[in-house]
Specification:
There is one protein chain. This protein is mainly α and about 300 residues long. The chain contains 14 helices and no strands. The longest helix is centred in the first third of the chain and has 40 residues. The model has no long low-confidence stretch (mean pLDDT about 90).
């Protein structure tokens, strides 16, 4: 019996590996393999054009922290964007979800309308917004002109370019909105009924029931927002190439320029691994803090 059971388990394992093999192969070739290679490259002076490859130890990392002002500049731009864009998209997405969770006429239509932009290609989105922010005939400056405000030359002005990219971040707020909406619909109606019996008004129900019950969803969207902001590339690259005067040179743009424009693949790999640890560290901080503000229904029952 023991041998038959062992043979049966081995056969099941073989079939499992067979069906998993396409994913495992893709993971090794396109994820684990490149990560290991970039880690090795980060300790070298790899240059594909010159065909050189020498191990140089920690020189890339020492250069990164001690002798590269562009590294700190790119980090500053990325953090400045994240500090505004993440709270903005979290709040707007949450408010839209709360609105669409009520008995709004045509709610299904509006849900679709708000979600559709989040599945459109980033390049297409950037080209649409380039037209909207055009200095001479763009819709944004035309609307500002109606209010008596002279609109800037958005993508040729440092502050204007970063501000425009923050506004563009609202374009894909529908993705988070759908997740919020699913969370809102999972809140038990008995909680609101009990609150009404206790004399709670709409604001009290929102602050004491809706927000606490939604903190796991807010937590998830916050983590995803951090990861997304530090991977931000397509829109700024399409619209500004990191300009003007590196005002929109996000960290990912600097990695791309270093590795592929300047062909300094070793230093670019070091930059990429620093980005990995920055995102890992920020995510760990949020996860560590979640115990004090994220409330789960199972914990409340316990």
């Amino acid at each position: 019996m023991a041998r038959a059971s062992s043979s049966h388990k081995s056969k099941d394992l073989g079939w499992a590996l067979f069906f998993l093999s396409p994913w495992l192969l893709g993971f090794v070739l396109f994820t684990a393999g490149p990560m290991i290679a970039s880690l090795v490259f980060s300790f070298s002076d790899l240059n594909l054009i010159k065909g050189q490859f020498h191990f140089i130890g920690l020189d890339n990392y020492i250069r990164l922290f001690a002798a590269d002002p562009k590294f700190l500049g790119a980090l500053t731009v990325t953090f400045a964007y994240a500090l505004i864009a993440i709270p903005l998209t979290l709040v707007v997405g949450f408010l839209l979800a709360c609105l669409l969770n009520t008995k709004v006429p045509g709610a299904d239509f509006w849900r679709t309308i708000f979600y559709m932009p989040s599945v459109v290609s980033g390049v297409v989105v950037a080209l649409i917004w380039r037209g909207l922010f055009n200095e001479k005939f763009g819709l944004i400056n035309w609307l500002l002109g109606l209010a008596g405000i002279v609109g800037p030359d958005w993508f040729n002005d440092g502050r204007g370019a970063l501000s425009a990219l923050i506004i563009i971040s609202l374009w894909s707020v529908g993705g988070g909105m759908i997740i919020y909406l699913a969370g809102l619909q999972g809140i038990q109606t008995q909680l609101y009924e009990a609150a009404e019996l206790d004399g709670c008004g709409p604001i009290q129900k929102f602050t004491r029931i809706t927000i606490p019950m939604m903190t796991p969803v807010i937590f998830f969207n916050l983590i995803m927002g951090i990861i997304s902001c530090f991977q931000y590339f397509t829109e700024p690259w399409t619209l500004t190439r990191g300009g003007p005067a590196e005002a929109t040179q996000f960290y990912n743009i600097y990695i791309y320029k270093t590795a592929f424009s300047y062909q300094d693949m070793g230093y670019g790999s070091a930059l990429a691994w620093i980005l990995f640890f920055i995102v890992l560290g920020l995510s760990a901080l949020v996860i560590r803090s979640s115990g004090s503000w994220v409330h789960y229904e199972t914990e409340e029952k316990a």
